[in-house]
Fold:
Amino acid sequence: MHWMNFPLIAVMIWSGLRIYWANDVYRIGLGDWTLFAFFPDGFNERLDLNRHLARGMAFHFTFAWLFTINGLLYVLYTWRTGEWRFLAPDRRSLKESAQVLLHDLHLRKESPPTNGRYNAAQRLSYSLIIVLGGVAVLTGFAIYKPTQLSFLTTILGGYETARAIHFAVTIAFLVFFFVHVLQVIRAGWRNCWSMVVGYELDRKVPR
Structure:
């Protein structure tokens, strides 16, 4: 279930870009002055993302259901097996996460404290990404069916706010996966393969 999120989210981002092409409203700037525009026309044309709105919507909504089902199964699995105890952060996680970051950036020589299978930074980031997955699903429903699910759209601040949150969550997913993959590669092939198959590989005991 864990490794399935990568292809699912990859397809959803690809199809989401096709949907975003139809109304690319987000930018960084002040007033009429634009410093940076997300996914300008040149980007869409090079990747052939423009003029494919219907195809993008079909793929996006189909894979959104698969992502939702997979997420619910994962949450159910962690709850029934007690795995959530290894993932849930505690009151020391925020402080220890800063220590992990400084150590990874080689700004701190002392190794950060370990508490179970995951360090504090992993506990925080993994828990946060699960929450963001739920936010992505809720905001997605809110902007997919704003009339039928008007109560949800209203709770999320209206259509425009829900759409902005959905877009921001997508950017957060991109940053998380980029850092996550780099950390997995840095940890070695054995760790990467364990993430794919879903269980830890036994290390050979030297004789």
In short: The radius of gyration is 20 Å. The mean pLDDT is 83.
